[in-house]
Design goal:
Layout: H1 2-15, E1 26-34, E2 39-48, E3 53-55, E4 66-69, E5 74-76, E6 81-82, E7 87-91, E8 95-100, E9 104-112, E10 119-130, E11 133-144, H2 183-198, H3 206-217, H4 221-241, H5 244-252, H6 256-262, H7 264-282, H8 291-299, H9 306-319, H10 321-334, H11 340-363, H12 376-404, H13 411-429, H14 446-464, E12 502-503, H15 506-516, E13 520-525, H16 530-539, H17 543-552, E14 554-559, E15 572-575, E16 581-584, H18 587-599, E17 606-610, H19 627-639
Helix pairs in contact: 2-10, 2-11, 3-4, 3-11, 4-9, 4-11, 5-11, 7-10, 7-12, 8-9, 10-11, 12-13, 13-14, 17-19
Length: 642
């Protein structure tokens, strides 16, 4: 029972975590006492507000206060020592617990290897409670180090006026970035996803059943049409409303969608989820929401009111989740970089595709006679989708691998996995690979045979395209496999971005720019950026574009999602133009902030041309798939430097 209480207490804590001392029921002050050149004793004094108590170590899993360092070169040498022992007292949440209810001091020794900053950033983690209120606190601390040196940091903000383009500047005044797909394109993509969902075993059989329900239960044909239209509108609204929480999240931090889409651990979670989805689609088990939710929605459905029809639509969304869930998941993660509105447009298209047949067949019930009968072909569609979900899962694993530089899924390994999946799909379609519910010796339709030929051909193209000399064969896939320079055949320390003079080093690019008197072409890019790869592999490889860049620019590729940590002596706290504090600890932190602060953009790709004296020569541009248009912008930008 106590373990259950601990679980719920921590669950509540996750929702009510306090991270600033102003909000905290405890006040912590700390100092670092020098022991020798690299060793310090950290002393933290903890004041507790009246009525609150701090938990010590308890057998139910609660930990005593502990210190954590924000830099990996700082190592604690012993467990925390407390000036007083916690006392055992009655506790509403845990019956009895060891707690501190009076001020106490925490002492712990630490050794700092290598560079010592002038101040060490720490976190003290505590669990506190008052009556039935429980909080898990992470309070940041900063202690001065006697032997520390001040970190100068990188000058993120460019000189005043540097980012003001000339009045006759080339390019649009507002750059088109990675989220450049128009609402109509996003709506169409979502609509296509909805069409795919329609022909799955969970949705397709529902069409004639639901429409027949409307036509038979309605007193007049007019009422049947009205109810069918209301049902369709309800389906549409349900999927649109599902995107609303992302608008709330998006308003918290403008860059959040880009951060989510490139976060390696979230990409690994997506990888696991999509593997789970694919296994379900293969037929090994069914994914479904709890039956209680479906039963509650179903109990409120009916034709008696608008609310009843709306609950009928909710019931459809719930019972069809085992088939629509993976498709919606793909839509969700595919929309992350585009932001909340991109997701809303996609969800609107998805809901529209699902709603249309129910409304149309309610208006024209005689069309039901022309619908193909449910059968084995629905199971085939579902299993084909399983292979596609499996392939997509490895895209997310590849994103994590790229930003962390693990080297697990080099381009050839990734293409090899996709080739195996494609050939396995071909074997399934011709009946050589049997999955759950398949029957050995089943007659193979001509459609399946044609699909097998296409899948096998695709697998062969992937295998042939692995060779460096054959990369042109896979241009149509640009952005999905890892970039060509992330290869088993090239040294990973070689320059990324095809022709980049400099990678992730603006200062070096600026130095070269002054030496050679050439403007800088800044390529704000990302390891997990699909449109960045399309530009590199389809536009930059155009001979005219390639030659012009090499002859006229110092090209620097700045990877905003690079999770490699900066050296300790290069990490610093930056104050943004809005007054917010931001910790710059990784390469990606540095260049994402550099881009946002100077060019008011947070999506990639973004191309910026600066003069050797750091003056903007043209308006920045984003994803420009037309090589001629991109070359014209480059040429115009160079002309402004003369």
């Amino acid at each position: 029972m106590n373990k259950i209480l601990v679980f719920f207490a921590f669950l509540i804590a996750c929702l009510t975590t306090v991270t600033t001392q102003a909000q905290s029921p405890v006040t912590v002050t700390a100092k670092a006492l020098l022991v020798n050149d690299s060793s310090y004793t950290i002393k933290a004094n903890i004041e507790i507000k009246e009525g609150w108590h701090v938990y010590g170590t308890n057998p139910d899993g609660l930990n005593a206060p502990e210190l954590n360092s924000k830099i990996e070169t700082a190592k604690f040498q012993n467990k925390a020592i407390f000036s007083t022992k916690p006392t055992e007292e009655k506790d509403i949440l845990f019956t009895k617990a060891f707690v501190f209810n009076k001020p106490f001091e925490l002492t712990q020794n630490i050794i700092i290897g290598g560079f010592q900053p002038d101040s060490l950033q720490l976190l003290i983690v505590l669990n506190v409670a008052k009556a039935d209120s429980f909080l898990s606190l992470e309070i940041p601390l900063s202690v001065a180090l006697a032997n520390g040196k001040k970190v100068a940091g990188f000058q993120i903000l460019l000189p005043a006026g540097a980012t003001e383009a000339p009045s006759d500047a080339c390019g649009a005044a507002t750059a088109t970035t990675d989220s450049s797909s128009s609402p109509w394109e996003l709506l169409l993509l979502g609509f296509l996803g909805g069409l795919i969902a329609l022909i799955t075993p969970c949705v397709f059989p529902m069409i004639p059943v639901t429409v027949s329900f409307f036509t038979k239960r309605s007193k007049t044909r007019k009422q049947g049409i009205k109810n069918g239209l209301l049902y369709g509108v309800s389906i549409f609204l349900i999927y649109v409303l599902a995107s609303l929480p992302f608008h709330i999240v998006g308003n918290v931090q403008p860059e959040i969608f880009n951060s989510i889409s490139t976060n390696p651990w979230l990409n690994i979670i997506f990888f696991i989820i999509f593997i789970f989805f694919s296994i379900s689609f293969f037929g090994f088990f069914e994914i479904s929401l709890p039956s209680g939710i479906a039963n509650k929605a179903d109990s409120k459905s009916g034709l008696g009111s608008l609310a009843g029809i709306f609950f009928m639509a909710i019931t459809l969304a719930i019972v069809s989740f085992s088939c629509t869930g993976p498709i919606l998941g793909t839509l969700l993660v595919g929309s992350l970089q585009g932001g909340a509105w991109a997701l809303t447009y996609g969800m609107a298209g998805f809901g529209l595709a699902l709603a249309l047949p129910f409304s149309l067949f309610a208006i024209f019930p005689q069309w039901l006679q022309s619908l193909p009968k449910s059968g084995g072909w629905l199971d085939t569609v579902k299993k084909v989708l399983a292979f596609l979900e499996l392939a997509l899962a490895f895209k997310f694993l590849s994103n994590a691998d790229l930003v962390q530089h693990w080297g697990l899924l080099k381009r050839e390994v990734f293409l090899g996995i996709w080739a195996i999946i494609s050939i396995a799909l071909a074997l399934y379609l011709i009946g050589k690979l049997l999955l759950p519910h398949d029957v050995k010796g089943e007659k193979i339709s001509s459609g399946r045979k044609m699909g097998a030929v296409l899948a096998f051909a695709f697998g062969i193209i992937l295998i042939v395209g692995m060779a460096p000399k054959n990369t042109y064969l896979l241009k149509f896939l640009s952005g999905f496999p890892p970039p060509t320079h992330y290869s088993l055949f090239t040294n990973t320390s070689e320059q990324a971005g095809l022709h980049a003079n400099v990678v992730n080093d603006y200062e070096k690019a600026l130095q070269l720019s002054k030496q050679e008197n050439k403007p800088i072409l800044i390529d704000f890019t990302g390891w997990a950026c699909v449109n960045c790869r399309k530009m590199e592999e389809n536009v930059w490889t155009d001979p005219a574009v390639m030659g012009f860049i090499q002859n006229n620019f110092i090209l620097v590729s700045l990877y905003v999602d690079d999770k490699a940590l900066l050296p300790v002596d290069k990490r610093f706290t930056y104050t943004t133009k809005t007054g917010d504090k931001k910790e710059i600890t990784s390469v990606g932190d540095l260049w994402a902030t550099f881009q946002a602060e100077n060019f008011n953009q947070s999506s990639q790709p973004l191309y910026v041309v600066m003069s050797p004296d750091q003056k903007l020569l043209s308006n920045p541009v984003g994803y420009t798939p037309n090589a001629t248009e991109y070359l014209n912008w480059l040429q115009c930008s160079v002309s402004k430097a003369k």
